[in-house]
Design goal:
Oligomer: single chain
Largest sheet: 2 strands, parallel
Shape: globular
Distance between the termini: 52 Å
Radius of gyration: 20 Å
CATH topology: Glutaredoxin
Number of domains: 1
Strand content: 5-15%
Number of strands: 4
Length: 172
């Protein structure tokens, strides 16, 4: 993301990182109890992930996070006047770059070519590095690791139970 932000820095767009909350709090990085704690965690995050983009801090109540849907790892491209040009969860840089380039290209063509906006949803795929994800969990502390993997186990159990219920209902 940092390389893409650098590549578009001379265009009429800016890339920022909105720091909302600790997604997986643990012993090392707990839920934010003050803006000072949140600011310190954001600085550490910037250093660990080598972010060069500006980081905007949400307030402790999560006002911005709530306004933008509360989903994790969201990416938004917002045009002038607040028009949403792109919105996705768990995105990858290639998809974001494609959406940004298309948005910039289409915005320049919309009046001369009489383009009309439309809404679309699609499923896209991104690379996933489980070792890197686990390392991120481990940085926050052992509790974050166990909480996450316990919740994954519970989700699999719930889905298994739902499949059994659907199968039983289909047999009736």
């Amino acid at each position: 993301m940092e390389d893409m932000a650098d590549a578009i820095a001379d265009r009429a767009v800016r890339s920022v990182f909105l720091y909302t909350r600790e997604a997986h709090p643990g012993e090392n990085y707990r839920h934010h109890t003050s803006m000072e704690v949140k600011r310190a965690n954001a600085r550490t995050f910037r250093e660990q992930y080598k972010l060069r983009r500006p980081i905007l801090l949400d307030d402790l109540a999560g006002t911005a996070h709530r306004a933008y849907g509360m989903l994790p790892n969201m990416t938004w491209i917002v045009g002038r006047g607040g028009q949403i040009l792109y919105k996705a969860a768990w995105t990858g840089p290639a998809d974001i770059r494609d959406a940004l380039e298309q948005s910039l290209r289409d915005l320049g063509r919309r009046i001369p070519d009489q383009l009309t906006p439309f809404y679309a949803e699609r499923l896209a795929w991104r690379e996933n590095d489980p070792d890197q994800f686990r390392a991120g969990l481990e940085r926050t502390g052992p509790q974050a690791v166990s909480d996450f993997y316990d919740s994954q186990k519970r989700m699999r159990e719930i889905e298994s139970e739902r499949r059994k219920q659907r199968a039983a209902a289909a047999d009736d």
